[in-house]
Every structure is written in C-alpha cells, then in structure tokens.
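Team,

Forwarding the record for the chain on the shared tracking sheet. I've put the sequence and predicted structure together so nobody has to dig through attachments.
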Amino acid sequence: MTKRALTDHRHYIEAVGSALEAQGIETGGVTGGISRGSRRTAAIGLGREAIWDYDDSHTTLSLSLEWDEERGWMVHDVHEPGATRGTAHGRYDLDLGLVPEPEEIVLRVRHMLRTGDPGRYDPVGRAHRSAAEHDPEFEAALAAYLPA
C-alpha cells in the first residue's frame, strides 16, 4: 500500500486567521500540526475581546477556534466553573463542515462575539470523515489555499 500525500492544511488555517484579522477580530496566533494518529489539526487563539463572563458560575479564561480534518471547526472555551477550583473545558461545534470559506467562519465568530452563543455544545466532536481514508475532494478543498 502506498502512502498518499497529504495537502498542507496550514495555508487554509492561515487564510482563516487573516480573514478574522482583516475584519478587526484580534487573534492570538495560528498553530497547526499533525496530532497522534496522523490527523491534521490547528488552532487560532482569539484575543481578549472574545472573553466573556456568562454569569457568576462561568468566567472564560481563553477562547480559541480549533480545526481538525475529521471534525471541522469548533470553539474551545477554557473557563473557571464558578466556586470550584481549577479550570474546565467546553467545546462547541460551529457546524460549518470541514473546509468552509474563511468568510463563513468570520460571520460565525462575529455572531458569537455579538450574542455570546459559541455554537452547539459538543464535548466529543462529531466526525465528518476519517483521517485514515483518502478523500480527494477534501484534499482539493485544502489545496485551493496553497500558494501559487
């Protein structure tokens, strides 16, 4: 069995980060890599404007957009759960599919910042595909963001 080449996903993630910044949404940088099991992953930290307090029981410490090739885009909320010590993590699916246009993500993040609604709570993350299976359409969607 021959190993299939994977399209570099970092250019897509950088395009999303640039689109957010172009619309005045502060980011804390873009990271990307390969996780255990050869799944492509990435994260974009959101700036201080994205931090909000739901109520006395939930104070957000950091908020980031996370992407992986099986689940697509999610919001990762690290927060203090009220009177208990330590931190908790919440993950919310943006329900945008695997490789939505960067502008779609900007619209969803703007809505989140305006309303405080991060999306559908999804602590496990529903997979849309398996990283172990080659998907030419998925690779082509990522390849559209490669430099010419």
